[in-house]
């Protein structure tokens, strides 16, 4: 029961309280770039969730079974980025084979998941927070993906309505999106201190 | 001969200036948003971050430019990332050894330079197509443009959130610090308004 509680708390904390996008500024590029329509935002979120769960787990294993305590630790970043690039390649092949329409609409953004800071960021945070339990690492990675999906879907929902609003000419596009994101983080700040 | 050297000198100047304003990575290309937002709560970390990015950008542009003829198209992004990851490791270890407290403040945002889109973008758009000289100049211009932007953003946020810059009081004593400015909200809204300002200025110029 205790383990379950810790896992649940970790999950809620990474989804809401320590949301990677809204409090750690990770994954801002797709957050601004792919949040034009809800269906695309959701697809992107799912792809990122898959990659982040896979690479979070793999990097934890590599870090703990191979790198830690050996001089190889200096190659940590190189190993992490290799694992992420591999996982993205896997997702890309899978989506191209089974969802060609989705693949078309993603265009350049799918390979760019490799350079999505949310994924490398999460792997580094798991290392930084000294998570020493595989299960917890898996739950945190999955939670990070869900948190990203939630943030990008909320943003897409707002932006679909924003199209109808009368925004000053010079603020159109990226500036108003950033300001909206700012107000959104203000709302999420209400959760600060709820857990940890 | 004279004309030729003048013309090539012009190209260098153009490339250098492009990074500073016309193709400013943050304001114009919207690249590298993650560090831009994350480390600009104060000027000192912003400056350190900028210098790290200049170092990594310069080294990776040099290496990519030198090996541009050997690159296989489908493996090039991977090669870029690995090159960048190597230099970021060097920068990270350097910071940890010589300025440990700054390394503590920046935390995971130093290794996150690996996935900073500016560096990959320059490797792809400039260094893998051009010679060594142009690549070096381009790296310096883009890096300087990025650093400048970070410092501008930080020098707006830091005084408003603490009343100080570099631990020197700049605003009058009665000023009530805006705590929100040092939080994520401040970062997003300041950058949004700055982008709007840049849009408005460049529209007036054109």
Protein architecture, described:
The complex is a heterodimer of chains A (196) and B (206). Chain A is an all-alpha fold and 196 residues long. In chain A, helix 1 runs parallel beside helix 8, helix 4 (38-67) packs across helix 5 (76-98) and helix 7 packs antiparallel against helix 8. Chain A has helices spanning 2-17, 20-24, 28-33, 38-67, 76-98, 100-106, 117-128, 134-162, 174-188. Chain A has one domain. The two termini of chain A are 19 Å apart. Chain B has one domain. In chain B, helix 3 (43-66) runs antiparallel to helix 7 (132-162). The longest helix of chain B is centred in the C-terminal third of the chain and has 31 residues, at 132-162. Chain B is globular, with a radius of gyration of 19 Å. Classes of the chains: A mainly alpha (196), B mainly alpha (206). Chain A binds chain B through residues 22-29, 32, 74-78, 81-82, 85, 111, 114-117, 120-121, 124-125, 128, 168-171, 174-179, 181-183, 185-186, 189, and chain B through 30-31, 33-34, 37-38, 77-78, 81-82, 85-86, 88-89, 92-93, 107-108, 111-112, 114-117, 120, 180, 183-189, 191-193, 195-197, 199-200, 203.
């Amino acid at each position: 029961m205790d383990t379950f509680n810790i896992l649940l708390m970790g999950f809620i904390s990474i989804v809401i309280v320590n949301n990677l996008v809204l409090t750690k500024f990770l994954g801002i590029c797709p957050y601004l770039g792919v949040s034009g329509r809800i269906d695309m935002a959701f697809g992107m979120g799912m792809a990122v969730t898959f990659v982040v769960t896979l690479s979070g787990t793999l990097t934890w294993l590599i870090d703990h079974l191979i790198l830690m305590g050996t001089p190889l630790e200096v190659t940590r970043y190189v190993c992490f980025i290799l694992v992420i690039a591999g996982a993205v390649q896997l997702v890309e092949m899978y989506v191209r084979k089974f969802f060609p329409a989705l693949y078309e609409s993603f265009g350049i953004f799918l390979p760019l998941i490799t350079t999505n800071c949310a994924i490398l960021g999460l792997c580094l945070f798991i290392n930084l927070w000294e998570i020493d339990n595989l299960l917890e690492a898996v739950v945190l990675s999955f939670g990070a993906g869900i948190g990203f999906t939630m943030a990008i879907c909320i943003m897409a929902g707002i932006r679909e309505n924003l199209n109808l609003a009368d925004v000053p000419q010079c603020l159109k596009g990226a500036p108003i999106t950033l300001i909206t994101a700012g107000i959104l983080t203000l709302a999420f700040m209400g959760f600060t201190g709820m857990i940890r | 001969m004279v004309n030729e050297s003048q013309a090539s000198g012009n190209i260098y100047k153009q490339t250098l200036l492009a990074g500073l304003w016309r193709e400013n990575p943050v304001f114009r290309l919207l690249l590298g948003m993650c560090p831009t937002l994350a480390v600009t709560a104060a000027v000192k970390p912003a400056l350190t971050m900028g210098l790290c990015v200049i170092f990594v950008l310069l080294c990776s542009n040099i290496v990519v430019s030198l090996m541009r003829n050997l690159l296989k198209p489908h493996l090039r992004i991977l090669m870029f990332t690995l090159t960048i990851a190597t230099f970021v490791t060097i920068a990270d270890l350097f910071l940890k050894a010589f300025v440990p407290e700054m390394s503590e403040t920046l935390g995971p945002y130093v290794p996150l330079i690996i996935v900073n889109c500016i560096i990959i973008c320059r490797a792809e758009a400039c260094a893998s197509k051009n010679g060594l000289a142009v690549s070096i100049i381009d790296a310096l211009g883009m890096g300087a443009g990025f650093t400048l932007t970070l410092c501008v953003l930080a020098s707006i946020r830091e005084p408003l959130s603490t009343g100080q810059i570099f631990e020197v009081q700049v605003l009058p004593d009665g000023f009530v610090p805006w705590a929100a400015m040092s939080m994520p909200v401040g970062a997003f809204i300041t950058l949004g308004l700055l982008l709007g300002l840049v849009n408005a200025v460049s529209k007036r110029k054109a």
